[in-house]
Specification:
The chain has helices at about 5-20, 40-45, 65-75, 90-100, 120-130, 135-140, 145-155, 155-180, 185-200, 270-290, 295-310, and strands spanning about 25-30, 50-55, 60-65, 80-85, 105-110, 140-145, 205, 215, 240-245, 245-250, 250, 255-260, 320-325, 355, 375, 380-385, 395. It has two domains: about 5-150, Creatine Amidinohydrolase, Chain A, domain 1; about 155-395, Creatinase/methionine aminopeptidase superfamily (Creatine Amidinohydrolase, Alpha-Beta Complex). By secondary structure, the protein is α+β, with helices and mostly antiparallel strands. The relative contact order is 0.11.
Length: about 400
Amino acid sequence: MINRNDVAREKMQRAAEMLRENGIDMWVFYARLKTDTALELMFNTDNQNEVLFLLTKEGERIVVALPQDAEKYQESGLYTRVVSAEGDGFMEEFRKIFDEFHVQSLAVNDSMDDTRCDGLTMGLYKKLEKALGADVMAKVKRCSYSMLEELRAVKTPSEIEIMKECSRITTDIYDALFKRIHVGLSEIDVAKIMMEECEKRNVCTAFGNPPEYPLVLNPKGGMSHRGPNDSNICEPGDMLVIDFSIRYNGYTSDIARTMYFLKPGEEHAPQDAVDCANAAIRAVGAVMEKIKPGMKGYEVDEIGRQSIVDSGFPAFPHATGHQVGLEVHDGGTTLGPKTGRYSSHGVLRKNEIYALEPTVLQDRDKRSAIIEDNILLTDDGCVLISKRQTALIEIPYRTGEEK
């Protein structure tokens, strides 16, 4: 398993490059009680105690921490300097280091639009401001949003390897499920099997605390974003849609599969079920064929959306895709419509990872299908990091698990 400190090392190295590119002298990360999610990304820590990190354009990596925490930061080998402080000592050390580097511009984590880049609380900001003086802070303060957004979205080599393994484990769990699933199971029963398979692999689902069941949806019970229930039973001739994410080494996947339960004596699924699944499969393929860095999110969405419509099914109400990373929906550019609630005007970049899910959604008396796979953007296109579904999964008629 890749050490998450390797990710932190890569992120801090890139941060120093960004500071130089943007003409910024220093970047401050200041948090307590896990208020800044950037600490996990940048420093591989979710420490609840007060802690202050300072990155400089020269590549200095400094942490100011309580005495009981300083030792672990020293042992990590990530920092050029570890300083112990308590109480007012935090701001005294901050001011000393600020003056030492003759800081003329200071990046702070505040954003009006993205909670993942808005980790500096007002109270801690006021402490920084008091340490420098309001006039000095007003002069030197810069918003870190453009740097932090890129650092979260554009994956480093270590992150890519972690997420490839995360996707591999996810599809491995699906393969195990396909051998165990059978008619007579409720949506809850199916979800429990998947939780068992997660436990066997020492991973958990990526939503909730404690981890929640995956989305297990028998279309006859409706396709709204809901949890599984005991009343929807898988019967011969039914389709079943599962949207499933795991968390592995801090990172997540997001992969959906659609299957059909064969009736006794039935060799293959009926044409309407096949057509429904194939429409979603074709739409994922259409996006994969054309997506590349430099495109805008809404341009990608138009490809997936039009493919579904061209197959004779209604346009879906959600986005064609979204970024995946530390969270299942990881912010940044969304592959969504040009207008509406999505941040779809951003430009795609190499080494971003997306979940693609152009979907067939219909009323419960008709077929629906979600096929979702995860891709990594390359220089001029994309590559799969998950094993792709290329046909409707047909579950043989059986009333119990395979032996």
